[in-house]
């Protein structure tokens, strides 16, 4: 069961791995304005990850800082949901994922901004404004693509269908020490579901898309059981730092 | 389907506000007779004033500016690739954040510059088509690969350093929108140069392997950086006209000397050597002497034979083509919305 360290780490890993995938778009976006926007979103997520990792290190009190936690853990020690770790090279997939993820982060950070833990409350209070922009950006694109051309409608629906089965893990309470919820530190994941669902469904309707009717994929990223793709992501992200043990950059 | 032809087209090189050709290739159309210049235009130039979009200007001036600004913009967006190559592998989260912000700035510079070009009556989409079809160029410096993390530092320190030397005088360019765009670009470039210096400074003070990585990067990027100023003044056919028009303010050789004078003391502060045994202070001239630049290499890279020419263009064209369905959807959606916002025709008639 994740205590404060594990909980903070899970939220940090969600943001970090999402930022790593988002940064792929820089120089590859459909138009220059989108290179700027996606870089901005990735930077916000990375900023959230850094604050949360630094705090996780503090809570752990074992001398690990943000870079130790980001660069020196292996696949099984990462606690992010599988939603964010998979390849994200299709714009429809990217916007579907960002819609789900940012809608969830909005509810999460809004709840955590009232956390009994002052650091989590502070981080969430700053981040909630950032993710509101991410949600707005994703919503507008999902609507444009859903209600754009026949091709974009199909591709946006395909993106939504591909991401939907991975969303359930965001609302799974199983990994969490419920004492953290009782003490007002953490937000109970399942308590966020209705609000996220309502927000996402409204966007899907406006976009003339269909709410996916697909089975949930079994995934347990919160327990360190990931897709095969995370290993490659980490290999790339970590190799330079690990090639020079103890070096300062 | 977009063709990616970088090797067989007109080969004009704009290097962040410089403008030159390979010697065996056609120079750009140059000055029309001075009598073609409207009197109002001549008066503004004589007073060192600014030409604005609605002012009268000779066609050659307009064409020269479009080419230069577009190629400057292209350089910014192609320049996102070599450094973008290290975002996923940046060795600390702080470095990753700085690098993402830096590459994002380059996209922003591209946006300001395309917007400045559009004030001259061209369209960003057309300029991008000209880049993608090889009819317009970008700075050759981005046709070199970033092989190690230290290359990110060397690009910031040397390439952005050279760009600043080229670009600061452009803040006084006779064409207002370009000059004003350059003020903001230069501020950000100056920050980029400091971050590059700081990367190398950290590496140079780090482990033996980090220090070797830094020295190797400087060894590879030094000469290409000097080439960014273009050929010697005697071989630079477009320079005289651009100077007469107040687009260009200093000669290639003067700018190159300024860069060397600025950079040599910084290399000493870093404790890294520059790969030129002829670098020495010349107290008679009050400048550093330096060795002869091998422009054969520059012209080969301009002709398309650099290590990454094909890859940079393929990356750019692929991104553009892969994004076509998204741009088409955005246009279709906007059209639908504007049709819905308009009252039906019958009512328009009734009103």
Secondary-structure blueprint of this entry?
The complex is a heterodimer of chains A (249) and B (351).
Chain A: H1 4-22, H2 32-60, H3 66-71, H4 91-112, H5 118-146, H6 150-163, H7 178-182, H8 193-206, H9 229-243
Helix pairs in contact in A: 1-2, 2-5, 4-5, 4-6, 4-8, 5-8
Chain B: E1 12-14, E2 19-21, H1 39-46, H2 59-78, H3 80-84, H4 93-118, H5 124-132, H6 149-167, H7 176-204, H8 208-227, H9 239-244, H10 252-270, E3 280-282, E4 287-289, H11 295-305, H12 309-322, H13 324-341, H14 345-350
Antiparallel strand pairs in B: 1-2, 3-4
Helix pairs in contact in B: 2-4, 4-7, 6-7, 6-8, 6-10
Would you give an account of this structure?
The complex is a heterodimer of chains A (249) and B (351). Chain A is mainly alpha-helical and 249 residues long. Chain A has a single domain (2-243), classed as Ferritin (Up-down Bundle). In chain A, 61% of the residues lie in helices and 0% in strands. Chain A has nine helices and no strands. Chain A has helices at 4-22, 32-60, 66-71, 91-112, 118-146, 150-163, 178-182, 193-206, 229-243. In chain A, α4 (91-112) packs antiparallel against α8 (193-206) and α5 packs parallel to α8 (193-206). Chain A is globular. Chain B has helices spanning 39-46, 59-78, 80-84, 93-118, 124-132, 149-167, 176-204, 208-227, 239-244, 252-270, 295-305, 309-322, 324-341, 345-350, and strands at residues 12-14, 19-21, 280-282, 287-289. The longest helix of chain B is centred in the middle third of the chain and has 29 residues, at 176-204. Classes of the chains: A mainly alpha (249), B mainly alpha (351). At the A-B interface, α2, α3, α5, α6 and α9 of A face α3, α4, α7, α12 and α13 of B.
